[in-house]
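Hi, here's the filled form for the chain we discussed.

Project: internal
Contact: R.S.
Residues: 310
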Amino acid sequence: MSTVFISYRRETSAGEARALYNDLVAQLGHNSSVFMDVDSIALGRDFRSVLRERLASCDLVLVLISRDWANVKDERGRTRLEDPGDFVRLEIEMALKRDIVVTPVLVQGAQMPTSDQLPAEIRDLAYRNGFELGHTRWESDVREMIRRLNLDVPRRSGGIQTDSLPMAPGEPTGARKGKSKKWRVWLVVLTFLIVSSGGGLLLTIAPWSHNSPHEKEDGFVALGAFDQQAKTYPNFRLVSDSLNEAGVKSGDIMKAKTSVYLRTNTENTEGKTNPPLGTIPEGGCVRILDRLDNIRGQTWAAVKQLANCG
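And the returned structure, exactly as it came back:
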């Protein structure tokens, strides 16, 4: 399981950091490796050395960015991030140097700082893909962030257990190992037969029938309202000529006529609750994983970006 380091500034986002820490521990399990200075440093330890140790070994750093985060000043009126000894700056700088996953987490309606607002040593933070935790959507946003960071994978796999059959009185351990292995083989064969016999039905009803069931979307795009006359969507066109009035379906490949925003979700973009993950360039292709109709009069889709349109 990944080791998560939460970087935050106590003066501005202590409450959000505490809530995030508690939620991560609750959802990932108490054995999960989530580091937040208050709870994770033993009394009497030199917190500077502990921070260096954790930052040198963690897999992921979540940087909580609150409103005016880049402009917070110290008691002398100096911008905190301009101080080379500022702990938040040092945490980010060390994580960026290791080139691990550094995710800006926007709270309190904050905006991503621009590169011009940051010292040169942490300027790359402005180009790291971030995630927003909304106050009114906190629980669902945390779950979505965990999913997108693949933090729940170990727990999901760990929750599926194949318990062996009970031991018969006097049965030797070696015999149980052989029987257990055979039992698992028969279970796999039986599952395959069931899936095969119902394959036609699954292909009919599965929303991502053309793709691997474990494939995750890269993001969401607004295809726009279907143009009945052109038989297409405003931003995209299908590479094939199969598009009709029914519109796109799972598995279709679409090619961007213009640069299109790839979004984190399907919420209204005006409220800045749906920040872009980037853009699909003109001529870029995506595969439709799931079609989502009647989202404020438009069709949205969960998509996977493709290296080419072939």
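Let me know if anything looks off before we file it.
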